[in-house]
Amino acid sequence: MANSSNSVFAHVVRAPEDPILGVTVAYNKDTSPVKLNLGVGAYRTEEGKPLVLNVVRRAEQMLVNDTSRVKEYLSITGLADFNKLSAKLIFGADSPAIQENRVTTVQCLSGTGSLRVGAEFLAKHYHEHTIYIPQPTWGNHPKVFTLAGLSVKYYRYYDPATRGLDFQGLLDDLAAAPAGAIVLLHACAHNPTGVDPTNDQWEKIRQLMRSKGLLPFFDSAYQGFASGNLDADAQSVRMFVADGGECLAAQSYAKNMGLYGERVGALSIVCKDADVASRVESQLKLVIRPMYSNPPIHGASIVATILKDRQMYDEWTIELKAMADRIISMRQQLFDALQARGTTGDWSHIIKQIGMFTFTGLNTEQVSFMTREHHIYMTSDGRISMAGLSSRTIPHLADAIHAAVTKAA
């Protein structure tokens, strides 16, 4: 066998597993018949299976049957129809920003790619290189922004005592941020906590940010998937666009259309006027070209097919609401199961939180106990994917939580 020390890469150390994807690796190695993976942020049916939406299958079939379709490169900015329809979906069909051509939208590689392109653009063309992100936030956020050349700081967001929003802490930290700093905001269904500001709180956040000239960068990964209503889930973004100010928005269709592996996303930048928007777009092209040249065509074509056909759009909203409703029902069932067991503590946060994830409030020791004794896998911060649950598996989870809380009490 060759000696690896001769390799020019012999100095390379083994990297740690991604904390989220690593959960799945450990789960796959477990041979227990009762094992349960609540780490992955992907929707599952009541039977625990991945779901392809009927409307997605129909759109795909139409694309396959259309012999005029070719596999040529898209432009650097992506599929024009897709970009136009994506902007309309998040900002609203009657958005003045769209009517005044103040929005530039580019197709990117799902939510992660959209955030990265936006971050690289800001690092090159924006005067302030500090971005404030919520504590806690999605594990990939700090890495994406740091590698793009921005400096990451945190603002308070989650209050472990109430398992809700630390609204005063959030306002104090943003008030103390330097003028012009960038602020990352989760448009809805905050990941990992499932805790969102109310509309009144959003309005106060907007006033504070605009008064200090802070630049909003929205991450919208769950539009329609949180409440089941596409307009309600875009409300926070639309508030910031309605005041005429500038902002960025990264969109993903992984969750709300179940297109995880197609990597379909968009980055929109709302500018002061059409001339600025056109210049911004020219520079976004220079960010994208050396990164991946142009985005893939298939997933974006599926999205565009659905969004531009009224009947298919309506069919999508029904399927989307069914997914959101199932998650809401899982929350209620888990809460009821814990109540029935008389589990110590107040578990009402499970039904108050929204979206795919619940921040259970379980600590690292309780999480590892549940994995070791009950074969339940989740991230060490106690975040669980509600979409990974079913009526069949809830009793098993409730038993495990009850045991973990009792043991640690």
Automatic annotation (TrEMBL):
Query: Is-annotated flag, keyword Transferase?
Result: yes
Could you tell me which residue ranges the Aminotransferase class I/classII large domain spans? 35-401
What is this enzyme's EC? 2.6.1.1
An example Gene Ontology biological process: amino acid metabolic process
A single Gene Ontology molecular function, please? pyridoxal phosphate binding
Give me the reactions it catalyses.
L-aspartate + 2-oxoglutarate = oxaloacetate + L-glutamate
* UniProt-listed PROSITE patterns: AA_TRANSFER_CLASS_1 (PS00105)
- Keywords for the protein's UniProt record, in alphabetical order: Aminotransferase, Pyridoxal phosphate, Transferase
Its Gene Ontology cellular component terms are: mitochondrion
Q: Which residues form the signal peptide?
A: none
Q: What's the cofactor?
A: pyridoxal 5'-phosphate
Q: Does the keyword Transferase apply?
A: yes
Note, other: In eukaryotes there are cytoplasmic, mitochondrial and chloroplastic isozymes.
Its subunit composition reads:
Homodimer.
What protein family is recorded? Belongs to the class-I pyridoxal-phosphate-dependent aminotransferase family.
Tell me the protein's name: Aspartate aminotransferase
